[in-house]
Amino acid sequence: MKTISALKFGTALASLSFAALHALPVMAQQDSGSGLELEEITVTGSYIRTPRQKDRPSPISVIGQDQLQDIGAADIADLTNTLTINNGAQNNPDAFTQNLTTGTESINLRGLGLASTLVLLNGKRQVNSAAPSDDGILFVDTASLIPMIALERTEIFKDGAAAIYGSDAVAGVVNFITRDDFEGLELKAEWQGNTNSSQNDFKIEGLWGGGNDRTHLTVAASYLDRSQLTTRERDLRPDAFIGPNGLSVSTLTSTPGNFIPLTAPRSDLNPALAPLTNIFNAGFDNAVPLFNFEGIGPVAGTPVIANPFGDGFLVGSFGGFQFQSPDIADPNNPASFLSGADGIQDAFTGTVLPQLLAVSPGLIDPSLANFNIAGLAPDQQAALQSAFGQLIAATDAAGFDTLLVPDPNCAAAAAIDSDVVPAFSSVTDPLTGQSVDVGACQYDFGKFFNLVPRESRLQGYASLNHEFNEKAEFYGEFAFSRNRAQRETSNFPITSPIALLPNNPFNPFTGAASLFIGRSAGVGQTTGDFFTDSPNPNNFRHDTYRVVAGVKGDITDQWYHDVSYTRAVNDYRLTSSDGLALQTNLALNGLAGQGCNPAADTPGTGNCFFFNPFGSGALADEGQQVPVTDLSGNVLLDDAGNPVLVPVLNSADVIDFITGDITLDGRSDLTVVDAVVAGSLFDLPAGPIGVAFGFQYREDGLTHDLDDDTNKGNFLFVSAGIDDFTASRDVFAFFSEVNIPLHEMIELSAAVRYEDYGGAIGDTLDPRVALLFTPTDWLSVRGSYSTSFRAPSVFQQFGNQTSLNSVIDPRDPTAQPFIAINTRGNEDLSPEESTNFNIGFTATPVAGLELNFDYWNFDFDDIIIREQPEEIARRALIASDPNFDPSLIANGSVTLGPTGGLTFISSQFINAVGIKTDGFDASAQYSYDMSFGTLRAGIEGTYINSYKAPVGTGNDVIDVAGFRNSQNFASPIPELRFNANVGFSTGGHNLVAFVRYTDSFKDDQNCGGGDLPSDFVGSDPVSLTCPGGLDFAKVASHTTVDLQYSFSFGPHGPMEGASFSVGAINLFDNAPPFVNTDGGFESRTHDPRGRMAYVRLISRF
């Protein structure tokens, strides 16, 4: 953090002004003999007016209307995705990495983060979206700016600009300029459709402008209707990765579910599990005592499984299966278990065991023949040994080391719904001939998501300019955006343990208590029906309003002023549904219902209802009933002495009772007051010295208000409580800028900005110096150096969010569970600081040819990142990790589920060491006029030489250029991206083609690779290495071709001013490269849609 005194700031400003006033004159004279007067304009990156935009010592790209039309850009995201300097913008909705931001669009210059690019509209700031990214970043939603028809041009300042614009301009500035001087009426209609599916966009827009000599009004409006593209329609995973019944992304938290028996499988209590009795008990001669509490005092501590490594089973001495077996790091450490007064207490059921035994997975090996069951012949022992091996193999095949028993209705459900996939096998007791199913009922949730969400956007923009007199002009802007998006998901799994008592009336495992692993019936789906294609809709609402009012004008012939006020607000709402934990537990015990009194009423009677979590709850016949018993097996009687009978089929009332609405209401607001005075001091021989002085006050705030059940953590999927919060801050800034023509060939620019945030953030002083050298008319050389500053957002300081991400389990690299990640704010964060420089040139050696080249370098310190979930899990679970801290489980930072798997990780925002990145931008554009038309050709590209980013705890830095970076702060960094184009126009005809190339990169989440899922294993996200000498899986390079033909009817005739365009984006339908992750592609880099055809009609009056 920088702390700058007022005296130091004043000295800096005075020094800058002194340099401007006392710059020495040089020999060259300004050429004024042409008689041509150029209009002076203000260019992005400077407040000093200049006659030509190219006379700037910094790299700037300008994308005009014609270029937007050529690339077929229907919205700003289409433009952003074509920029080679953009890396990691979140413009392709992804339910697995973008939980809250569906319906938004963003820009990420240089891959330095969504908040490191300053987005301006007509040179003024825009409010951040109230929806943070999964990394907790607040950013400007470019989908909520203005109608595209109102966009005149886009200016991209590809250099640090904090000295001019303040915080957030670390990687650069993108300034959207509107068509405020438009005269007439323009109407546009556009259709864009996916040639592989029914997904399409339809958009209509209008623009009107008019006025008189002193007043001008421009009004624009647009409406977009976008249909969805689901993963069911377009599965991007190769056929080899799609298993039985089209299984693409499977889970054991299925519908119907799976069960872990918690008590001994005794045949007198559990007929359905009786075959397991002999098979399991036969293995006890190979059981190894892990810990015996006899004679040792009880030690309170962490849950039963504190160190869940390995492949064996953890069991009670009485023969009951319990949880996944760890190879206990220290068997003699009683703190590894939660102990009761007389032994080891099961953390979920409360059962007290006198000792724990570990059944070795080595029992699968036939060479082990030390079975010694009293009274059994050797052949019977061998048969039991073989059966025990089958039991373990069946359990392993299901994906768990713990004994798992599928819902008896799994096969029947699979016959109705192809997303239910039986993945179990039958194991037979060789002594009795009885069989039992062991394994899992799997569920394919991968087909319930959107590659393109259903969306509608209604947007408007108006500008008013009124000239009071020759010295003063009023300007005002109003913009609004009403965006609605709906993203489909599957019904949510239950991550909190749900215990079923032995007397549950629907329990097919009579007398057996068990843990239920599955999904709450009907949540987000057709009421009372497990088996339906109807997904769980998440609805997103984004409403944005922006007002600007200002006065500008000339003070003298040499000086102008601009004073303005900006107020902008973004209102955000997310709604979804999930099962309620308290209500579900009541319903499992027959106490569901609005009029039920759990303390006094009899379960299943009167206003009290049962919830049936088994498959029979959806498959039973209407009217089928079963009796209710107590824990002793006695049938309950109602007040009339009749048996209490309850329906097997779940009713709508029960489903409604256990289902709750998740609601997040957010508001982000921004207030800005700007004042700028600029002009020229005096003339040097090479030209006038230009200066600018300014002041800015801004206040930004953020509020998140969640429903009561989310506050309390009362949902079954995201079970962590999340607090409401509201926060705001204000910033005062002063800045100065000078432009000195030292020589007709040399121009020096300098700027300095002081910002004061107060409080823990403090203040900062950021300078910028740039030099432009123009030795000839066809060559200019530029260089710049600056520092930048980005304060932590109010969300990073005070916010709290839970997102859902795929995380590598450090105990098993092949396991990548989809779990909840909670991220908390950190009031002690320091601001980020950056130093960057740029060296480049522009050359026009022959007529029609322009060459540009720039080397850029950013050194970004104290970057704010979310603690990496994999790193937290590793510190909590891997004893050999140098930062091993088992207290992370005890304090709730890492939560393990009933099978020992990861279910929840809590993290916070931290300052990491920083990012160092450098690379090259290059472009060549050529235009040649011929007698029969004009030929155009060009190429532009970006090469990233290095990108050193923090990994692990944030203190280690590794070069991640050329990596996907799913396990660290960075975005995917393909080292090379380029666009090549060729076009020809004649008369009103125009034909243009683009070739877009994205380099291959390594997948840091997956090692190995091949034709089958089993060919992939997880990596070490801390060291960025692969186990066993494997190399990282490769995400292939990607090349697409865009083609467009357009025709303009010209200024005469009945179609005067009209034009139409037809084209295709990704003409050859090149699918995005496969990535072995949920969804099958990298959403931050590649477009999942495939070929998109479009037609555009424009009429001008």
Automatic annotation (TrEMBL):
Instruction: Name its species.
Output: Iodidimonas gelatinilytica
Entries under Pfam families matching the protein: Plug, TonB_dep_Rec_b-barrel
Query: What are the annotated GO cellular component locations?
Result: cell outer membrane
Q: Which residues cross the membrane?
A: none
Please give the PROSITE patterns that the UniProt record associates with this protein.
TONB_DEPENDENT_REC_3
> TonB-dependent receptor-like beta-barrel domain: from which residue to which, for each copy?
533-1067
Write the protein's name: TonB-dependent receptor
Q: Does the keyword Signal apply?
A: yes
Which residues constitute the signal peptide according to the record? Answer: 1-28
Q: Where in the cell is it found?
A: Cell outer membrane
Q: Which PANTHER family match?
A: PTHR47234, TONB-DEPENDENT RECEPTOR
- Which InterPro entries does its entry note? Beta-barrel_TonB, Beta-barrel_TonB_sf, Plug_dom, Plug_dom_sf, TonB-dep_rcpt-like
From the UniProt record, list the coiled-coil ranges: none
* Predominant location: membrane
Q: Which UniProt keywords apply?
A: Cell outer membrane, Membrane, Signal, TonB box, Transmembrane, Transmembrane beta strand, Transport
